[in-house]
């Protein structure tokens, strides 16, 4: 067991963890931040995407110990200060970019990283960026549309909601 | 102007806020104080005789609470099958035992042999490695036709062979043979409907809990139908009376059929919690899901189409081998029969249709319903053989279909179902318009200028949703009713809780169902909440599958709301001192016809619960009504789909360049949600056509047990927005349910696969390649081999 200290969604957290505790288990079991989901065991699906020091990370690919001293942000920390949905979250709701909601936290975290790196992506760039995220419900159409809308681009001309 | 509320509007989904903020409550998010964790030790061989499972050393490992094996489940029931199919000789299907943990033999990779319950998952997993297994490997049974040969290794030693049933349905053999003998042309096609894995993004989870205080068991589970699980597990497996068993399916992360069924892990956690008097939790890993979730499809078919000299279809005959896997999953037996054979007429007035299905046991994971369930298999073979016939006859594939369309309704098919309504010409017209068929030649020329081949594929389909009525399905072998139920509970201040038997796991019921009640009562949707997924809160309903929720449960909700309105009018009449027959309800106000006298919705609801001024001699206080709705028929959504593919002859790679769906879902409650369902269905259909394949080797080893090996559709595998349109403007309302709705959940997955394959074959033919068929997934290697083979 080793003590780790990190900032999670703006709050400092100190916990004892085992060396082999995955970040997903740390967030879900130790901090009860269950919005970070586990959809696979091969780092393919992206449901566990979080931000570590501003970078998009699949939480299943790192140990909690590796986040010692890091700034960590999860889906629970994405809403605006007043609790309202942020621009990306709101766009997902406006454009029906989610159905069962299980992959959604990972999609929102990926979208935030994309728009930070590339504020006005093309459709092809959005689809390419989502290579590491699997959604089984939506066919991605409305996810792509939501991300384009969140970037401030006009999506009103796109046929089919 | 689109409506902004009620039926036909697209309000934003209310469930989205919790999902977008990480506040959803999925089963794996549930932790009960004192819970133990279970790890299942699963067979790594396809078939073997269990000589010994020695748990002695493992039991002494740190953290182990108890280890269970098949022996612990002797005297406990096996997992039941919910549908008894009768074969063509009148005999019942063979129904092998399906123990919770393997007894005597293991029969597929993933078959659970032992279950280790420990203080932590890590300790359970570590202890499982110390279990000594002595399993004598037996020959795997993988190929269905080989499984039926004399002397084939038997999956179940107590059965006479590996044939579950040999089923025949539709037109009699003499009439069918005569039609083929007299045909001017017969087209034959042999094909495979590839085995798939449903892959909802949330793996299955079960948490069993037991209360000594009241002898009550609770199961939290990732299910599409908690009451079905309660009935099957309580009555057939564990012998727990229903009033002592609660099943909760909270937020569920997608289902697509695979979460309909009652699984061993659910029974285990419920059983073990009682045995050790502690909560027991199991969470599937994705690899575990691949080898324990029921798979889908896996049919091998020969289909023949007979035509007369004028290109009229005169007969269809099919011969299908359907893989059941090692055991009969909950509804496995119904999929290749009543959900497949009944759809074999398609959209066409073919006078003779005969369906033959042999269901086969193999040493593979059980196969059951996956999005579409039998209907995609029927559509694929029929629409592929029609395309081949058109090419052989030099006919236009659209014209050939149109010529044979059913145009008068109701229409009784030779395969027992009666289509109540439809307009297949209208969806075809809409598809042609949106697809710009006349522009195809120019688009093909553009592709060819780049060195690519371009193909156009079209497809029509019919589906049958909301399987019913119960008395009919009972005659066909169903061991359950197929009604649904809703309770409308109006509160004193006028807000409403609607408890429904349907379960929402992505379909947006919490948003769409209130639209219906709000429309009927003329009140705001925000006053209405939907309650689902907990047998202790909802009436006995059958859950969500087969695109049934709005057609069946929605109809129950309408009936219950009608009862509410009838009673509320009586109360209003009393308050207004008027005759009940003069009371009108509009915009949440009860008024006396022809006067300005009225009372508001809230006045009436308050009177119902504070009955100081109330007709107590005539009616009871309170305002709560339940309705059970058993439909008189299936609903029959239909559609016409088309796509254009570009094929790179250098690599065999296929890309979808244009895709159009024109569906007829009858009336639509929430267009945004309906279109979302179609998008998802199309993605799964394109996935089946181009990417997905659940593969076994000849030893029965599962080769595709992770997302590294099983190709899920990703965002860049699907058509881009500018070249993709889903449409549901053609609407012929269902004639027999109160909302005129038909169901939309499976259409995309049914309509897409033949559309894509037809387009690929068209592309190849345009390049001079005489390829008549490629089995799905139409991968680059398969295309390249077909071109160069």
Low-confidence segments of chain B: none
Count of the separate structural domains of chain B: 3
Q: What is the CATH architecture descriptor of the largest domain in chain B?
A: 2-Layer Sandwich
Query: Strand order within the widest sheet of chain A?
Result: 2-1-5-3-4
Q: What pair of chains forms the biggest interface? A: A-B, 59 and 63 residues
Number of helices of chain A: 5
Shape type of chain A = elongated
Oligomeric nature of the chains: heterodimer
Proportion in helices of chain B: 25-40%
| Beta strand count of chain A | 5
The total beta strand count of chain B reads 30
| Biggest sheet strand line-up of chain B | 3-5-1-13-10-11-12
C-alpha Rg of chain B, in Å? 27 Å
Structural class by secondary-structure content of chain B = alpha+beta
What is the terminal-to-terminal distance of chain B? Answer: 56 Å
Largest sheet of chain B: 7 strands, mixed
Q: What CATH architecture of the largest domain in chain A would you give? A: Roll
- pLDDT < 50 stretches of chain A: none
What's the pLDDT, averaged over the residues of chain A?
96
Tell me, what's the shape of chain B? globular
């Amino acid at each position: 067991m080793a003590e780790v200290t990190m900032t999670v969604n703006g709050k400092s957290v100190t916990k004892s963890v085992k060396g082999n505790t995955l970040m997903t288990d740390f967030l879900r079991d130790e901090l009860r931040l269950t919005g970070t989901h586990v959809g696979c065991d091969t780092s393919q699906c992206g449901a566990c995407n979080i931000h570590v020091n501003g970078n998009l990370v699949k939480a299943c690919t790192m140990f909690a110990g590796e986040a010692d001293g890091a700034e960590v942000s999860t889906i629970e920390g994405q809403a605006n200060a007043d609790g309202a949905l942020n621009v990306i979250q709101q766009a997902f709701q406006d454009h029906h970019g989610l159905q069962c909601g299980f992959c959604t936290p990972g999609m929102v975290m990926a979208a935030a990283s994309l728009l930070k790196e590339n504020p006005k992506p093309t459709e092809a760039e959005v689809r390419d960026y989502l290579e590491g995220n699997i959604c089984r419900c939506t066919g991605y159409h409305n996810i792509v549309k939501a991300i384009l809308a969140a970037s401030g681009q006009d999506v009103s001309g796109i046929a089919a909601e | 102007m689109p409506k902004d509320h009620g039926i036909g509007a697209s309000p934003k989904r209310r469930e989205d806020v919790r999902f977008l903020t990480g506040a959803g409550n999925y089963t794996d998010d549930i932790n009960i104080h004192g819970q133990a964790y279970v790890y299942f030790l699963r067979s790594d061989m396809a078939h073997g005789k269990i000589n010994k499972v020695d748990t002695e050393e493992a039991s002494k490992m740190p953290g182990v609470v108890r280890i269970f094996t098949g022996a612990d489940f002797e005297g406990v029931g096996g997992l039941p099958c919910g549908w008894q199919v009768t074969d063509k000789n009148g005999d019942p299907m063979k129904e092998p035992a399906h123990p919770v943990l393997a007894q005597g033999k293991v029969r597929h990779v993933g078959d659970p042999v032992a279950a280790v319950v420990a203080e932590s998952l890590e300790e359970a997993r570590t202890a499982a490695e110390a279990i000594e297994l002595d399993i004598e490997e037996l020959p795997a049974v993988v190929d269905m036709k080989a499984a039926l040969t004399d002397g084939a290794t038997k999956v179940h030693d107590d059965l006479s062979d590996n044939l579950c049933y040999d089923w025949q349905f539709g037109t009699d053999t003499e009439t069918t043979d005569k039609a083929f003998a007299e045909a001017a042309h017969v087209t034959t096609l042999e094909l495979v409907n590839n085995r798939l894995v449903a892959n909802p993004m949330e793996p299955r989870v079960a948490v069993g809990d037991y209360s000594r205080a009241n002898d009550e068991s609770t199961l939290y589970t990732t299910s599409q139908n908690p009451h079905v699980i309660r009935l099957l597990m309580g009555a057939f497996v564990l012998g727990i009376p229903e009033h002592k068993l609660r099943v909760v399916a909270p937020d569920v992360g997608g289902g697509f059929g695979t979460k309909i069924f009652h699984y061993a892990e659910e029974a285990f956690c419920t059983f073990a919690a009682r045995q050790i008097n502690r909560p027991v939790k199991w969470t599937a890993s994705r690899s575990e899901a691949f080898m324990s979730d029921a798979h889908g499809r896996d049919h091998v078919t020969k289909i023949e189409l007979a035509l007369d000299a004028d290109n009229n279809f005169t007969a269809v005959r099919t011969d299908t081998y359907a893989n059941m896997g090692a055991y009969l999953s909950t509804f496995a037996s119904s999929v290749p029969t009543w959900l497949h054979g009944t759809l074999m007429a398609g959209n066409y007035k073919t006078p003779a249709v005969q369906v033959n299905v042999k269901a086969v046991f193999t040493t593979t994971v059980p196969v059951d319903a996956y999005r579409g369930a039998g209907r995609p298999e029927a559509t694929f073979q029929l629409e592929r053989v029609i395309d081949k016939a058109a090419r052989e006859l030099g006919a236009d594939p659209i014209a050939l279909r149109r010529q044979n369309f059913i145009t008068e309704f109701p229409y009784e098919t030779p395969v027992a179902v009666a289509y109540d309504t439809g307009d297949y010409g209208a969806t075809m017209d809409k598809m042609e318009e949106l697809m710009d068929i006349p522009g195809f030649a120019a688009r093909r020329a553009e592709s060819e200028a780049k060195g690519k081949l371009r193909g156009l594929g079209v497809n029509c389909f019919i589906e049958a949703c909301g399987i019913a009525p119960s008395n009919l399905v009972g005659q066909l072998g169903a061991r359950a009713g197929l009604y649904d139920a809703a309770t409308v509970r109006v509160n004193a201040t006028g807000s409403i809780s609607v408890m429904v038997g349907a379960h929402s796991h992505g379909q947006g019921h919490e948003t769409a169902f209130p639209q219906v009640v709000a429309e009927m009562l003329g009140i705001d949707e925000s006053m209405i909440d939907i309650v689902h997924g907990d047998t202790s809160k909802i009436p006995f309903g059958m859950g969500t599958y087969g695109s049934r929720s709005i057609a069946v449960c929605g109809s129950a909700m309408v009936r219950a709301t009608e009862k509410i309105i009838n009673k509320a009018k009586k109360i209003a009449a009393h308050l207004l001192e008027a005759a009940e027959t003069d009371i009108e309800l509009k915009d949440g106000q009860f008024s006396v016809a022809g006067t300005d006298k009225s009372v508001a919705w809230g006045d009436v609801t308050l009177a119902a619960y504070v009955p100081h001024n109330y007709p107590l001699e005539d009616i009871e206080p309170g305002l709560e009504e339940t309705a059970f709705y058993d439909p008189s028929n299936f609903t029959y959504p239909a559609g016409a789909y088309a796509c254009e593919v570009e094929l790179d002859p250098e690599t065999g790679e296929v890309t979808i360049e244009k895709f159009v769906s024109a569906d007829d879902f009858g009336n639509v409650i929430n267009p945004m949600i309906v279109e979302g369902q179609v998008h998802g269905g199309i993605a799964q259909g394109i996935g089946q056509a181009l990417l997905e394949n659940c593969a076994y080797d000849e030893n029965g080893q599962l080769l595709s047990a992770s997302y590294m090996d099983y190709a899920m559709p990703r965002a860049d595998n699907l058509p881009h927005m500018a070249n993709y349109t889903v449409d549901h403007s053609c609407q012929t309302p269902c004639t027999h349910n109160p909302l005129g709705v038909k169901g939309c959940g499976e259409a995309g997955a049914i309509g897409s696969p033949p559309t894509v394959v037809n387009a690929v074959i068209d592309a190849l033919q345009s390049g001079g390649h005489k390829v008549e068929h490629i089995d799905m997934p139409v991968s680059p290697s398969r295309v390249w081999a077909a071109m160069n083979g």
